[in-house]
Design goal:
Elements (H helix, E strand, L loop, with lengths): L2 E2 L7 E2 L5 E2 L3 E2 L6 H11 L8 E5 L5 H8 L4 E6 L12 H10 L4 E4 L7 H4 L2 E7 L8 H9 L2 E11 L9 E3 L13 E3 L1 H10 L4 E6 L10 H6 L1 E8 L1
Parallel strand pairs: 5-6, 5-8, 6-7, 8-9
Antiparallel strand pairs: 1-2, 3-4, 9-13, 10-11, 12-13
């Protein structure tokens, strides 16, 4: 984790690796090359002229990227990392926002409170790296779906993708990535079934570009993977 000094407060612990004006680079936990490959998948259908909601924005890479790609309006939301029990804070987002001269709006709100009455509705809703951190994934997916007028984009850990039935795997304690806030991993069939249950008719699944089965331990690929889902009304 890169820790960059701030002129007006404590050091920033970065998760996203951002390139900011003046040559400043934040070497966060997630490398810039991985973020760039993810962005190509997330925004493959375009967001120019659209209203975009980024749920779980953290340092804001995808919020700022949506703005850079021509989104008409972007709202970044988070709670777990900005003021909740996560190890992050909003300091990175605020620093990048100022350096970029960004017009992205922000709101500290937890996923279960998201709805048309609290945030409004959007053409495109991003829910990236969030679903496996919530204790009630279907309910939280429903909250995201309630404000997605056109498309919902979900990136998540999946498990047991070889099974044809909609199932989820529960992670005990620190079983996944030594992180006690990782709870559930649906398989692809379950993720699609939930989306269709919530009114989405067209589903597109894309494997994570940085995830490949290990040639010596393919069983790990069977146990858990990562996927992007684009779901349209």
């Amino acid at each position: 984790m890169d820790v960059s000094p701030r002129q007006d407060g404590p050091p920033i612990g970065w998760f996203h690796s951002l390139t900011l004006p003046g040559g400043e680079v934040t070497a966060g936990e997630k490398p810039a090359v991985v973020l760039a490959s993810e962005a190509e998948v997330v925004f493959r259908h375009g967001v120019a002229g659209k209203r975009v909601l980024d749920i779980g924005a953290w340092d804001g890479f995808f919020s700022f990227e949506a703005e850079r790609r021509g989104a008409a309006q972007v709202l970044a939301t988070d709670h777990f990392c900005w003021s909740g029990p996560g190890w992050g804070s909003k300091a990175g987002f605020d620093h990048a926002h100022a350096r970029l001269g960004s017009k992205v709006a922000s709101l500290d709100i937890d996923v279960p409170r998201i709805g048309p009455e609290t945030v409004g509705t959007f053409d495109v809703v991003l829910m990236l790296g969030v679903l496996y951190h919530v204790k009630d994934p279907f309910s939280c997916l429903e909250r995201a779906a309630s404000v997605a007028g056109e498309c919902l984009v979900v990136e998540t850990v999946t498990a047991l993708d070889v099974l044809p039935w909609p199932v989820m795997r529960f992670f005990r304690g620190r079983e996944f990535n030594d992180d006690p806030t990782n709870f559930w991993a649906p398989n692809r069939a379950c993720l699609e079934a939930m989306a269709r249950e919530l009114g989405f008719r067209r589903i597109e699944m894309t494997g994570h570009p940085a995830t490949r089965p290990h040639w010596r331990r393919p069983e790990l690929y069977w146990l858990h993977n990562r996927v992007f889902m684009h779901a349209w009304r």
